[in-house]
Amino acid sequence: MSMSNPRFDRLVAKLRELFQLDQPELDFGIYRILHARSDEITAFLENDLLPQVKDALATYQPADKAALQAELDEAIAQATSLGADPDSLPKVRELRERLENEAVDLGALEAEVYDHLYRFFSRYYHEGDFISLRRYKEGVYAIPYEGEEVKLYWANHDQYYIKTAEYLRDYAFRLRPDDDADPMRVHFRLVDAAEGEHGNVKEAEGKKRVFVLAADDFIAEEPGEGGVSELVLRFEYRPATIADWPEALREGKDKPPSQKDLLDAAVERVEAVSDPSLARWIRALSEKHIKADGSRADYSRLRAHLDRYTARNTFDYFIHKDLGGFLRRELDFYIKSEVMRLDDIEDETAPRVEQYLSKIKVIRRIALKIIEFLAQLEDFQKKLWLKKKFVTETSWCVSIATILGIEDAATRKELLAEVAANDAQRAEWVALHGIDKLQPDLERPAYSEPLTPEFVVAYPTLMIDTRHFERAFVERLLEAIGDIDELTDGVLFQSENFQALSLMRARYREQVKCIYIDPPYNTGDDGFVYKDSYQHSSWASMMVDRLGASRALQAGDGVIFSSIDDHESESLKYLMASILGARNFLAQLIWDKQHSQQQGIFKRYHEYVIAFAREVSQLRGITGGGGFIEAGALKKISKANPASDFTFPAGVRFDAPDGTVLSGTFGGSETVRVVRGRFEARGGRTTEEITLNAGWTQKAQMTSWFSGQPTVDSKGQRVVEFYFNAAGKLKCRKERSVITPPSLLPRYGMVSEQTAQLVSIMGKHTFDRPKPVRLVADLAGWFTPAGGLALDYFAGSGTTGHAVINLNREDGGSRKFILLEMDQYFDTVLVPRLKKVTFAPEWKDGRPKRLCTPEEAERSPRVFKIVRLESYEDTLNNLELKRSDSQQSLLDAPVASGAGGLKEQYFLSYLLDVESRGSASLLNVEQFIDPRAYTLKVKRPGSDETREVAVDLLETFNWLLGLRVRHIAAPQSFSAAFKRDDEGRLRLDGRLKPEADGSWWFRTVTGEAPDGRRVLVIWRTRPGGDDVQGIEQDNLVLDEWFTRQGYSAKDSEFDLIYVNGDNNLENLKGVDDRWKVRLIEEEFFRLMFDVEDV
Predict the structure, then answer these.
(1) From CA 773, how far away is CA 778, in angstroms rounded?
(2) Nearest CA among 722, 807, 744 for reference residue 773
(3) Which of 315, 844, 901, 975 has the most Cβ atoms closer than 10 angstroms to its Cβ?
(4) Can you list the alpha helix ranges (DSSP code H) found in 446-534?
């Protein structure tokens, strides 16, 4: 088709923009993927799709105006040449009537169709996002309304907010990515976010913000990571002004420079730097950029990274939840309101009405095909956003007390010796806790280098970080400490919070008692990244999906608290009501923070905490009818919690069947030993006085209660009863205190005091305006029972974790917490803070002011689990499009061409899904041959640097299953030899031989599924690969190993067995066995992409 039609050209340009093909310099994320097929997609648009407009019009229209006019002109000429009056001829009159009533200018109509298509799609797309753009005309858009009394609606209500703040603040890349000694790291740093620092939020509202190279001191070489020098380029992020034009170009300008103009100027300024000390940096930045496909660009490396930096903060804030449905509805509305107006056709002739209908049919037909392609792009990105993300790293912080609780003495001694000898761990303890300054005494030996096991044991609340240890040590440690989920008191996710909430859903569904969040307040200077002109709707979209995702985790009697101020308090209340139901609103609490930074008619000294219940009818707490708390009264025996004797009178409640007798030592990790008497149950009571030895946690209260005295705990809650459960473990039943706190919260001190308290812990300023620990402790304490679970998915500096630790130390509870944070201060503030407050309760100048008492040590966290997830951008960066030769030959076949043909259907609906299969981030099951070697390219937070890491498939699968993990075994490796028997069957030649580097590697996980079924997960290497003989050998080794473990004889132990790779385990089942075997690969894929309930 000729490309001379300007309206056609304009439409093609718009579609290239919509299909994200118009910026070849953006070679990252989804742009990189689409650019790989850019030529094909453009050719499809120009040569296959849009020419269908002319073909369709030719089909629908009865007569072409130009052809009729030519025929009329010829008839008139003939009449004139014969001397006749043309108007008297029937043929001339007929042609004129048809020309007036039936004919249409096909060229003009074709252009009109292109124009309508352009106008329609221009309404909804802006810089990578589909949004209903503002129009200065009434009734342009249709807002869905279903008869609600009050409808909350915002511009992006049907979209996922996917942007994060990390690129806005910092962006870094290496000029020498493979040179660790001198990587030449370049760092773009934001130094002046104008709206926030100058308080002109209102003035800047609606104006487009851009990145401007700082006027002064814009470049400097500074010490970076590990003391290696890095180049820092400083930028401001604000609306541009006329003054931002370079002086040589400023004269005569009446508009501020665009982002492109500013980047041109930035490149020129940087490359003009003449400082000799920076010469090598400038040379490297000025080199031509190498694109993702390996070709050399016509622009510099500096310009390439500036384009990325600015685009990542300008483009792609949202992914539409149902773009196809949205655009199809809007198309119908557009046609009715803009193309075919009833007033225009009321008096028209039938042929003219048919022309209108023809035009509508063509517009609709072509638009629907374009919508189908756009929906494919958006749905593909939606799939990538919603799929459960891989765990890229799992590490553990384990207290020395937990290692001391390992039952096997030899293992315990061996592990403690390795801890003491680990210099990296010693250095961390020196940096965090100042252990080199601790004074020795009779119980605590002096500090030394290396540390001694005796020194380590003297401080049971020290936490080791497994990142400092070899993998083999971590594997042995996890196996030795036993019930890992029970011991884990805190789970810390470094991840975008929506992704972490999605991944943890199966494990923690309806288990969280209290959620506290402190989201960005959307003030313009709080780090929340929003799309220009969409500040409030960006925030609403961000919040509503995270509130929805967290709702699934809340217990029926759970409560969510959210801090907020006046900027978004009304919106937040509406959003929470839309997710949780207006009936579940509890209160809008007021916190007097005793400080105001705002200027205006009034000084605002307060913030709010909005509270909603998951289901108010199930709520039993501070405003409910009291109730009771059940808590354990013993824990593992350790140096911090030594064993002691206690004598119980006869007649103590004992919830065991009549005739049950316990003797000797029992109780598992919480050891109980019968010292004197017969521990027997009769009629639900003990039969005689008994003396037991155990690690009692409430001995003072036991002494008081059994002596007949009124007994209360540290919260004033009355002890109702001490009793033994069926396993002989002592429990305490308390009467829950019933209070009704006022909506005006107590004063918790000024904001500056909270910052100072955090400085006391960390030793320096690390985080602005943390929330008071006591505020969060009070909120969590009201609704989180002694064994309850708290969640914070805007964790910041870790205040919620700190609050839960304090609560447990106060009342002996065993509350657990989950914290989600993706920012870089996860590693620099949150994790160090929790390690510190676990070690000691009071701090000054970054050093412990007071160490834990034995009781506080016993009530301190045992294990933190740190989980790092693949990001959405990692998912994009690991995509690869592959098309087989057979697929290409099908697309090239003549029969595949034409409207509605295979080629059209493939491009419109299937291209991305089909060709991305097997990408590492979309599950490449071929890599399951060795579960230890599944790799992804993972981006470091705040930088453009990627590194290849081995994905933690074991942990990812545990989360996908929602497994309540009981035990993670250390790996076993074997070698084997084979032979054929007389019947040709493969047999082992000898036995499996344990070898550290053996080809066959096994590791198991045991636990319970969410429905209570007992699960065994078997991970193994398959050195035979997919070769027939190799599969036979691998499965023979698996069968022999499985039988050797005794699993085949323990039918009652497991209900489900998962194993990677095709196998014959089912053949080992006996006649009465009921366990089922499932392939890990199949279940992994199903669960990773099971997003139906998101």
Answers:
(1) 9
(2) 807
(3) 315
(4) 453-457, 471-481, 484-487, 497-503, 505-508
* CA 192 – CA 217 distance, rounded (Å): 13
Which CATH number does the domain housing residue 608 bear?
Answer: 3.40.50.150
Structure tokens at 211: 């990145």
Q: What's the burial of 630, exposed, middle or buried (CB within 10 Å: 0-12/13-18/19+)?
A: middle
Taking every pair of Cα atoms in the chain, the longest distance, rounded to a whole number of angstroms, is 138
| Shared domain check, 285 and 323 | no
Domain boundary among 482, 516, 545: 482
Q: Detail the DSSP E strand segments found in 569-643.
A: 585-592, 606-613, 628-632, 634-635
Are 394 and 382 in a shared domain? no
Contacting residues for 978 by C-beta, under 8 A, at least 6 apart? 986, 987, 988, 989, 1033, 1036
The helix (H) or strand (E) run that includes residue 764 is none
Q: What is the total count of domains within the chain?
A: 6
As beta bridge partners, residue 512 has 554
Gap between the Cα atoms of 534 and 777, Å rounded: 35
Residues 292 and 548: their CA atoms lie apart, in Å, by 37
Whether residue 63 is predicted with pLDDT greater than 60 in this model: the reply is: no
CA torsion sign for 884, 886, 890, 893 is positive
Query: Smallest Cα–Cα separation from 776: which of 589, 1043, 1008?
Result: 589
Pairing of strands 606-613, 219-223: unpaired
pLDDT at 79 over 50: yes
Alpha helices in 61-200 (DSSP H): 65-81, 90-101, 106-122, 166-169, 194-198
Q: Which of 330-334, 347-351, 520-524 has the lowest mean pLDDT?
A: 347-351
Separate counts of helices (H) and strands (E) for the chain: 41, 45
For the chain, the straight-line distance linking the first and the last C-alpha, in angstroms and rounded, comes to 45
Question: How far, in Å, are 340, 344, 352, 762 from residue 349 at the CA level?
Answer: 15, 11, 5, 82
Confidence of residue 941 (pLDDT cuts 50, 70, 90): low
Q: Are residues 118 and 199 both part of a single domain? A: no
Tokens (6 digits) for 929: 């041959």
Is 927 inside a domain boundary?
A: no
Instruction: Report if residue 859 sits inside a domain.
Output: no
Are 963 and 1057 within one domain? yes
User: Residue 965 corresponds to which amino acid?
Assistant: V
Give the span between the Cα atoms of 11 and 8, in whole angstroms. Answer: 5
Question: Amino acid identity of 849?
Answer: K
Question: 711, 735, 759 — which closes off a domain?
Answer: 735
DSSP-derived secondary structure letter, 1065: G
Residue 898 lies in a domain: no
Give the span between the Cα atoms of 282 and 272, in whole angstroms: 8
Residues 261 and 338 in one domain: no
Burial 62-78 (b: 16+ CB within 10 A, else e): ebbbeebeebbeebbee
Token representation of residue 906 = 């493939």
Q: Are 244 and 256 in contact (CB under 8 A)?
A: yes
Cis bond leading into 785, ω under 30°? no
Domain for residue 865, yes or no? no
pLDDT score, position 101: 60
List, in order, residues 6 or more apart from 809 with CB less than 8 Å away.
Answer: 841, 856, 859, 860
- Domain residues for the domain of 340 are 6-61+104-158+318-386
**Residue 192 and residue 129 share a domain:** no
Structure tokens at 600: 């205006």
Reduced to 3 states (helix: H, G, I; strand: E, B; else coil), residue 352 is helix
Encoded amino acid at 599, one letter: Q
Strand 730-735 vs strand 628-632: parallel, antiparallel, or unpaired? antiparallel
> What gap in Å lies between CA 357 and CA 346, rounded to an integer?
13
Q: For 747-770, what is the mean pLDDT?
A: 87
690 and 767, same domain (yes or no) = no
Looking at the chain, the whole-number percentage of residues with pLDDT higher than 70 is 88
Domain match, 696 and 599 both: no
How many C-beta atoms lie closer than 10 Å to residue 297's C-beta? 15
Residue 255 to residue 252: CA distance in whole angstroms: 9
